[in-house]
Amino acid sequence: MNLAAVDLNLLVALDALLREENVTVAGQRVGLSQPAMSHALARLRELLGDELLVRTGRRMHRTALGHQLMPTVRRLISDLEATLLSRRGFEPSTSQRRFRIAANDHAGAVMLPALFARLRSAAPGVQLDVLPQGDGLPLELATGELEGAIGTFLDVAPPLVDRVLFREGFACVIRRDHPIGRLTLRSYLELDHLVIASPGYGPGVVDFALEARGLARRVAMRVPHFLVAPAIVARTDLVLTLPRRVLAVATDRRLRVTKPPIPLSDFAVQLVWHRRSDSDAGATWLREQIIACARSL
Predict the structure, then answer these.
(1) Domains recognised in the chain with CATH numbers
(2) What percentage of residues in the chain have a pLDDT greater than 70?
């Protein structure tokens, strides 16, 4: 293969196709029509001698070569972007850049409404894609798939960098007309609990605090999202212990908020990014907006 004859735009198209696994969405990502992106895919298939994407049912999936190429192609594109953007600088008011970050459910509920309002005011043309956090987060940050991630991270080691945005405490919620009256430790243990936890998630802060006293709670229901939980509590006798700031975006007049009957350690919410993006003026600007937004919480 003669690299001099390869159109660099095909590398951009390949990156979008492998990331999105959808010709139409990939075209939208790089500003190409669906026919133009289909043509680019055909050229890439001929150039690489592989289908790259194959249809299974209604969806397209990466081939083995596509899986193999994706991190390398993403890293190449990211290196080019970092080099060019760092030299060009970043002008928020005129930028059309698309940023991608990851956030857990708690950080998303607490920060994203104010963050996007801030971005919209300073940079009306930018786009913000928010993705769920997964096991591949370090690789996604390293390859430039993500500009950053917001959440709680126990171990952050170089070349990843973290900054604490704020510390979060806990509150308990029961329905306003709950028959127990005041929430004591005894009634807290007698009640059934609603727990917010991702599938496969183990004991949390509450469980560890109770275990230290030789106690345990009875969990009747688990849900994966913060915003659905208050609605469930409002119609049941369950008690819910959740991060305090979530209540600001999940208010419900049917609920009564009270202090946990047992001391619970607060936790840090952090912004994490890869050191390689320090030279990216746009990514640096985005981090500044996230940090400023956290200060106002």
Answers:
(1) 3-87 (1.10.10.10), 96-156+276-295 (3.40.190.10), 170-265 (3.40.190.10)
(2) 93
